[in-house]
Amino acid sequence: MRELLDHAFYQRDSQTVAVDLLNKVVVYGAMSARIVEVEAYGGSDDPASHAFRGLTPRNAVMFGPPGRLYVYFTYGMHFCCNVVCDEDGRASAVLLRAAAPLTGIAIMRQRRRLSSEAPLRHLLSGPAKLCQAFAIDQTHNGADLVSGDHKIELFDDGFAPPDRPARGKRVGISRGEDFLWRWWVRGDSNVSRPNDEK
DNA sequence: CTGCCGATATACT
DNA sequence: GTATATCGGCAGC
């Protein structure tokens, strides 16, 4: 079973979509990985969100239709990617924080500059690591995951989200800190910070 | 293993 | 000027 996630999947509250994205598969060319850690971001309701203060050139994709990729550049060197949620005009997204490698491991190792001896858990265990391994950058901002116009797609392969995912505070923010909007697959070795459960 | 620190571009005050 | 949805290197356990 390999079912492309459709428009209706993404057009829901970002917290709901976040939990449902756990154990889904992201595919880009020869590379694929199973999503094991996510964070939800809102709009004017979420002080940690890039969209909190309204529409800007950077966050415009977050305000657009669901099922698109919102890619941003941060710390002068890293890209991170989000899946846009909610109806067109309402800003929200889910940050893809970590994934378990499935295929294309050799090319991902090259892009991450990891030797063949390095543990696989270092390959995709962070949002910028995931983008580096998949070669996702600003050119993918706004990519349509439903039509696959940039050949990036998300699938349900029949592996359900965990019944009881681990939950905790979002990482690296200084506002909206008390929102428990990070979820991950309990016990998965690819999770970036497995010890912050609340 | 943990914690500190610098890198380095863009957004925002 | 200051902050940032991060990471890897290095020091010290």
Number of strands: 9
**Biggest sheet details:** 9 strands, antiparallel
Radius of gyration, whole Å: 15 Å
Helix fraction bin:
10-25%
- What is the averaged pLDDT score? 97
* Morphology: globular
Helix and strand pattern: EHHEEHEEEHHEEE
Your description of this structure?
The protein is an alpha+beta fold and 198 residues long. The chain has helices spanning 7-10, 14-21, 60-63, 105-112, 127-134, and strands spanning 3-4, 25-28, 31-41, 69-74, 78-84, 93-103, 152-156, 166-168, 182-184. It has 5 helices and 9 strands. Strands 1, 2, 3, 4, 5, 6, 7, 8 and 9 form a 9-stranded antiparallel beta sheet that branches. Strand 4 and strand 5 form a beta hairpin. The mean pLDDT is 97. The protein binds a DNA duplex (13 and 13 nucleotides) through strand 4, strand 5 and helix 5.
Question: Quick summary of this structure?
Answer:
With 198 residues, the protein is an alpha+beta fold. Helix content is 16%, strand content 26%. The protein is globular.
What is the topological layout?
Blueprint: E1 3-4, H1 7-10, H2 14-21, E2 25-28, E3 31-41, H3 60-63, E4 69-74, E5 78-84, E6 93-103, H4 105-112, H5 127-134, E7 152-156, E8 166-168, E9 182-184
Antiparallel strand pairs: 1-7, 2-3, 2-7, 3-6, 3-9, 4-5, 5-6, 8-9
Helix pairs in contact: 4-5
This protein binds a DNA duplex (13 and 13 nucleotides) through residues 39, 41, 48-50, 53, 56, 58, 72-78, 80, 82, 95, 97, 126-129, 132, 170-174.
